[in-house]
TrEMBL record:
Protein name: Amidohydrolase
Originating species: Enorma phocaeensis
UniProt domain Peptidase M20 dimerisation: residue ranges: 215-309
Pfam families named in the record: M20_dimer, Peptidase_M20
Lineage, broadest ranks: Bacteria, Bacillati, Actinomycetota, Coriobacteriia, Coriobacteriales
PANTHER family: METALLOPEPTIDASE, PUTATIVE (AFU_ORTHOLOGUE AFUA_6G09600)-RELATED, PEPTIDASE M20 FAMILY MEMBER
Amino acid sequence: MERTEETGRVSCKRSAAGADAKVSETIRDLSLASEPYIIDRRRHFHQHPEPSLEEIETTDAIAHELDAMGIAYERPLATGLVATIRGTAPDAYEPDGAARRRLMLRADIDALHVAEKTGEPFASVNEGIMHACGHDCHIAMMLGACRVLSQMTDELRGEIRVVFQPSEENGRGSQMMIDAGVLDGVDGAFALHIWSEVDAGTISCEPGPRMANTDWFRIDVTGTSCHGAMPQRGADAIIAAAEIVNNLQTIVSRDLSPYEPAVVTIGELHGGTARNVIAGSAYLAGTVRTYHDSAHDAMPRLIERICTHTAMALGAEAKLTEYTVAHPAVKNDETASARCTHAIEKVLGPAAVGRYRGTLSGEDFSMYLQHVPGVLAFVGTRNPAIGATWAQHSCYYKVDESVLVKGTMLTAQYAVDFLAE
């Protein structure tokens, strides 16, 4: 009897494993059939980029695609959309109508103020605006996943909420969507980010910190203006600002532990009114990126100390007039990361599981992870053979489009696996 029971259990396991393999095979087949569509949509969105808070035509185009698929959606914002894919498995919903489990999938949709210089035939037609961070790919991969999952509803033991989110680049979009209720009743969250530092064909989804705390700041410098030929009569605000830029770099090299990654970047320095006038005022603005709470908490104090005393030494004044915590670090949940790794192995094979140290770039997907467990996976696109080596936000940014279908496969597999638990 024991042997029979044991044999029965093994038989059940094999049957379940076989069914699981069949689902993965279906996901691969449907995704590959949709690959031309995915690439075509990526090129469309790349050619017609819109910056943060202006993604109206982008959202219109996404709605058009969902209409063609017969997928229901709501538009809580003019620049954002939320679609729903309802599972039709027997236990997908409770007797009271509540979803057994609900997963949120997110794709960000905004572009950057970057003038494209790729020379691609589908380069941006909107002057000074470019999808230089891969969000066009995110839209396309997610639309591909919607196409696949809408044909597999019998395998979905719950509900999928697909969020096409605006304004990631300015760090505001996720909170806008949270305020619109996209996390209501959600049990977990998943997102992809196309990434230029991960090899094409691999996907990285390790647990723990993956992207940094993101803060913004501004320093105003006040000097004394005078004739450019009589510098001794004034206090040069530009000189003080320039010294502040240099001295701020000592925060990372001298005030923080070498084991605490951090970046202090000055992206703007403005000052002066004429070429023969010692500037009486200037300002600089920048961003801070950190992983650890200790470094994050210390940054405003350290910046203020340096700007105040540097300016004072040069006869000027400087104040940290703005310091904004935009969003926290992206920290992948351990269980979600393990689930993602298994999903990669199922649809792409073990060799596709990538390894990546993480980045001090920021991502407002972290705001969702403050409320529900989840994972952000880096879809590698680095391929020197086709020139796909440029960094995110470069005017030459290029992707290996062959990886897009892999992102679609992973999204669909993760969704099925999550709802099956």
